[in-house]
Amino acid sequence: MSFLNSILKVFVGDKSKQDVKAMMPLVEKIKSFESQIEKLSHDELRAKTVEFKAKIAEVRATVEDKIAVLQEEADTTENIDRKEDIYQEIDKLKDESYNLTEALLNEILPEAFAVVKETTKRFKENTSITVKATTFDRELSGSKAYITLEGEHATWSNSWDAAGKPITWDMVHYDVQLIGGIAMHEGKIAEMQTGEGKTLVATLPVYLNALTEKGVHLVTVNDYLAKRDSAWMAPIFEFHGMSVDCIDYHKPNSPERIKAYNADITYGTNNEFGFDYLRDNMAHSPNDLVQRPHHYAIVDEVDSVLVDDARTPLIISGPIPQGDKHEFNELKPKVQDIVSVQRHYLTGVLAEAKKLIAAGDEKEGGFQLLRVFRGIPKNKALIKFLSEEGVRQLLQKTENFYMQDNNREMPKVDAELYYVIDEKNNQIELSDKGIEYLSGKDNPDFFVMPEMGMEINKIESKGLPVEEEAQLKEELFRDFGVKSERIHTLNQLLKAYALFEKDIQYVVMENKVMIVDEQTGRIMDGRRYSDGLHQAIEAKENVKIEAATQTFATITLQNYFRMYRKLSGMTGTAVTEAGELWEIYKLDVVEIPTNRPVVRFDRDDLVYKTKREKYNAVIDEVTKLSREGRPILIGTTSVEISELLARMLSIRKVPHNVLNAKLHKKEADIVAEAGQPGQVTIATNMAGRGTDIKLSEAVKKAGGLAIVGTERHDSRRVDRQLRGRAGRQGDPGSSQFYVSLEDNLMRLFGSERIAKMMDRMGLKEGEVIQHGMISKSIERAQKKVEENNFGIRKRLLEYDDVMNAQREVVYKRRYHALFGERLRVDLANMIYDTTEVITQNNKEANDYKNFEFELIRYFSMSSPVTQEDFEKQGVQEIAHVVYEAAFKHYEDKMERNADLAFPVIQNVYETQRDKFKRIVVPFTDGLKTLQVITDLQQAYETNGKQLVTDFEKNISLAIIDDAWKTHLRKMDELKQSVQLAVHEQKDPLLIYKFESFELFKAMIDQVNKEVISFLFKGEIPQETANTIREAKARRKEKLETSKEEIPNMDERSAESRAAGNTQKQQVVETIVRDKPKIGRNDRVTIKHVMSGENKTVKYKQAEPLITKGEWVLIDE
Q: Which DSSP state fits 568?
């Protein structure tokens, strides 16, 4: 592939060079403005920002005037169709305004960038800058120590505090940084090497886009960087009258956070931006909203946020009834027992396999070895044995034999196993023997799921009274639910014991299980594994098992960031993920040249047979380098390895610092010391993101920072990140990776050729192999993993896109209901949709009586269509007539409500307005009562119409929120249940799309009917005059925010297969077909077992519903 790439480069050219070449004319333009800008006084330099803003206002003026005129018309017109047309025109004009603004920003870019560069230059060259004081200067001087006022003048110091660290400004943009700024303004990703000043580069596009006053978000991976960068860069922007804030300083939903979002430039972490979006979509008043529309965002460490964290859902959840009830503690002894039994059995099998192979019986020895590998692949004795000459090839050969013909012979290998582990896909599957062992002789049906269709038919064939039959069905469903949850709990416990290791995937701190980020080694505070896996690990580690919660709102980071009008990013490691970033986000990666050539020496990998040899070699090398006076950064992939190396260095009496998940809070201090002569720092491969290791002249003369990688990571960019710690700004340095055949990457994806080559060369223990071909082979293994991971993320994106499309519809309706201005259009559409559904359903059944009944039920009105017209006319004609009558009836009713309420409002306003600002007015539909909050003065000034608007808003919000929470729970259940489709050779994704569409359609219909029904029936009780009272502040629900680590779809499928194994009936029956076979496209009638509802669908659509047990096939 690399040969093909080199050929393509000859004919097509190097992409990165072409990208940079295309931007060079703009760089020259920026430099041409520098001489003009240099001549300006400090006040004239600041006036440039005012000039740019005036140009933007001028180019927008015409469009904004048109929008204002249309908005006024929309507020006054009563014609709903015209209202809808106006709102569509306004949306188009907003797009036009954005495009005009972008064109102007491109035009003023060279001059604006020159202004920012000149500002940084003046702050570097002057200890203080005195200018004429503006109102903004005066406001800032009260809270910022670097601004002092002297009469009409303000003096800006070039020294200030950056999140607890005193700094003196000493940076000016290089030419290559101007290229990075251009790339980010154009909505691309700028890949810049470590030490190239990404934080400074961001000031260029941030300033330019902040001129629009629409808000610029700079997103970081942790709150330390958000707070540091916002304080570090703020004076450069504030000098030009731009406000800067950081959301991580302020509490959610606080006035301070609202102010932070209203700033021209807002810094913050990816999590907080996402959670604020979700909180806004749970707000009950426009005053509670914190975010503005998503305009422009720059994502720092973009690969970490948009690739590593992309599929992580942000979740706001609340308590559910009996959420603390579970069977983890009850089932834990059974799982501990089965894990212990399998381990004990396979330890003996491994010893037997070794004897057989040593005796030359490769067939039986290979068979036993494969059995051990499928049962305990992470066993250290097994891993060591596999590194011996010829053993891995024997295992591969045996596995290939038993995997042929679609794994036809594999059951022979698995026959004596209690469960099988697929380490590559992180899956675990219980065998029949395992189920039998767990169930025990006393209760063989403990894990056997009832066959729902068969059991329901048995109940219905008994001819019992309706009440007794319903009770038996209820018991059956309860049993099904209990066993289903039990199997799920058991699978998660088994996974916790067999696949998840303490101090590798997670650590236990302060009596809590905390997930460790595999990329950075940092603790991911607040994040939990989903689907009960976290609770299973808590049970395993004997810490408090947290109660289950219900999802109220959720979004993945990839869908949150795709909402921005313009998105860009910066990182040191993105080019290896360029395909994914383009395919999902349409973000192009531009490689920015370094300011000075990189002189770091990257050596070829050293490959050893065993981990022990490798670690001994690492310690020898580190000891030697430390004595030479060079600082060393040792990169590890887990807490366990970092602690092992720390112990080995302590034995050699080599002083060192350790930075891992347990000590992540000391990161900044440890990284600051890492450049001292002879300093040894043990850290994870991506430690110190966002911080530079600075070297003294003595260290540079000694050879610079030495990077020692103890293992190749699954992803090439993680290794590049570690290498990038050395060689910043032309500093000397070196990097060396140590690899063994026992490493995870080499065991799972490494080329078999490396093992064969080492065997052929007859390498003895402790000997090493090093060659460029070997390093290339390892990189190919990493590419395999990257492609596999991209496939998983892309697959999950397809699931998430379904959810996202639904979320957009619901949140848009909610937004309209919250503000009220477009709510009337939505209500008109609800009325029309409901009339169409009622008409269509009854027209198909030719049931005029039910048609009349449903109009009374939902619209509280008699039919405007006679039976004769109902039979003659088409669905659209009837629906239109009904809609016209219903909407007229609705408007009249709302007018009557306003007239009825006004005397009461008038009385309260005229006699008690000094006591009340907002009042509560009860509305009832005869069954439920809703307390509607309205502004007393507005209700009085609009003759009661404001109360009617608030009534519509309150009803819509309450019903939408309730339905959406229920729908989210159903979607969670659906995502788990569709994985059973793999048993039927079907694609779970297709079933998920079909089923979720049906669920969403049903939810929207239900919302429409409930909203319409309450609005048409809702009235103010006659005794309202005596019940008017002041509205109290809404009581806040107890909510939790979390990020879930979700298993990929393959893992879910494996869990489902394991669950499927438990559904096998223990009585073998011979089935004789007594009815003709049903074709996949034949239409069949199915019945819902609880509601009794019938519907006719194609058999291929009915199958998954019948499988779930909620529907049964009935004879027509």
A: E
930: enclosing H helix or E strand? strand 929-935
Q: Which pair of tokens denotes residue 371?
A: 């059995």
Question: At residue 378, what are phi and psi to the nearest 5 degrees?
Answer: -95, 5
Taking a C-beta distance cutoff of 8 angstroms, is the pair 859, 1012 a contact?
Answer: yes
Q: Which sign, positive or negative, has the C-alpha torsion 1102, 1103, 1108, 1114?
A: positive
For a pLDDT cut of 90, what percent of the chain falls above it? 25
- Amino acid type, 732: P
Provide the pLDDT confidence category of residue 821 given band limits of 50, 70 and 90.
Answer: confident
Phi first, then psi, for residue 350 (nearest 5°) are: -65, -45
- Strands 244-246, 512-515: pairing is unpaired
843 within 8 A of 881, measured Cβ to Cβ: no
Tens digits of residue pLDDT in 742-792: 887 776 665 566 666 666 666 666 677 766 677 777 777 777 777 777 766
* Helix ranges, 287-361 (H): 302-303, 328-358
CA-based R_g, the chain, Å: 34
| Angstrom distance (rounded) from CA 23 to CA 28 | 9
What 3 state SS string does 187-204 have? Answer: CCEEECCCCCCHHHHCHH
Ordered alpha helix ranges (H), 161-254: 175-185, 198-201, 203-210, 223-238
Cα 97 vs. chain centroid, distance in angstroms?
Answer: 31
pTM (two decimals): 0.73
Closest among 1017, 1010, 1002, 1012 to 1091, alpha carbons compared: 1002
Report the alpha-carbon distance of residue 878 to residue 519 in Å, rounded.
61
CA angle, 747 then 752 then 756, to 5°:
120
Cα–Cα nearest to 316, from 965, 970, 810 = 965
Between residues 222 and 815, the one the model is more confident about:
815
pLDDT at 339 over 80: yes
d(Cα 147, Cα 123) in Å, to the nearest integer?
13
In this model, does residue 1078 exceed pLDDT 80? no
